[in-house]
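Appendix B. One record, verbatim.
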Amino acid sequence: MFEDLNDLYQQVILDHSRSPRNFKKLDGANRVAHGHNPLCGDRITVYLHLDGDVISDISFEGSGCAISKASASVMTTTLKGKTIAEAQKMFAQFRQLVTTDKPDGEDIGKLAVFAGVHKFPARVKCAILAWHALVSALEGRPCMVTTEENPTAPKS
């Protein structure tokens, strides 16, 4: 059974990597942020259209490894229609999942396919890149974020 589950997770990641959802420049985006993982070369741009505090539309463009593209793809399908607060909560849950394999006690849907990433520390940065760009976009910071800094750390 465990092997079947691993196969399913691998298939979901490969499917989202080969045929990423919401992979386009979003016309009418009112928030944009860019992310770069200098260790493996992944580059992601996240586009958001916020209506008040709701993500009414979200997309991404970029290049990178299968984990990076799949993570961005699943992220966009998961967050469409969510509030900023819900998106920030999901970021925290996802970060915990990919670093420990234990989400914050709640069902996180398709994002659970990334639970095995914690076993490969170099891949954690690939999985979380789009999410760091998302947080930057939500905060209205269009600057380039990298996996070598913590864009969610409190500013001094």
